[in-house]
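Internal ticket - ligand job 238, uracil:
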Amino acid sequence: MTKSEIKVLEEVLKHEQSLCVPYPSVRPTHTTHVLSWHPLLMHKITEMRKKDTDSSTFRKLVEEVTTLICCEAMQHLELEEYVVETPICKTIGKRISGKKLVVVPILRAGLGMENAVKAVVPKSRTGIIGMYRDEKTLEPHVYFEKQPNGISEREIFILDPMLATGGSADAAIKLLKEKGCKKISFICIIAAPQGMDLLQKNHPDVELYIGCLDKGLNKDGYIVPGLGDAGDRIFGTK
Ligand code: PRP
Ligand code: URA
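stdout (structure tokens):
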């Protein structure tokens, strides 16, 4: 890299930093998995960030990134053996065992991730939490909620591409814990330190999977550098 290229990068970093509201640095705990070591994830998340990426490409990237994160988040699922027949011979195959897991997208933006999980775990059930955050106060508001039967006995994967202040994720996790859910993972594509910090403090029992941990939040509560409003980009509403 040339000196002038390094200077450009330094300027970009300085500008990003200047947009962030001050916040102490936060480290991931042992239940937080930041997956930015993964080259495919980083490549695709960068494509998502670009402001000129159109809505249909953005939706496709959301699904691809979710599939990659799921590979990490679902490594521990239990398997059982059973006999299948290949064109050559019988063999012992494996299938996911135990009670069907539940994916819980937080509306709207989490809906963009649901198909990707259904594609890899077709027998999973879906719960829904409809929530928006007030643009001024940044407080979350639940407007709809419906969970599958027997949710307290099942493993839960909450989906939301963005973890900003953490208010929405915190409220969603509390809602599911009040219903008796014990084994919960939260999957997001981009997180701010503030959101990661809040979940680590309030829910040390929840596994947190983060595609990329960004610099911070701007004064309007948007993640910096982030990708803007995920819901609007998925549904083309702006
Ligand atoms: C976004 C995002 C999260 C929330 C994160 O949803 O999808 O749910 O903001 O912010 P927080 O961590 O500060 O709570 P939004 O409220 O924009 O609703 P939408 O998905 O309907 O666009
Ligand atoms: N919600 C989004 O969609 N984007 C952000 O940057 C923060 C919250």
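Auto-summary: The chain has one domain: 26-235. The mean pLDDT is 96.
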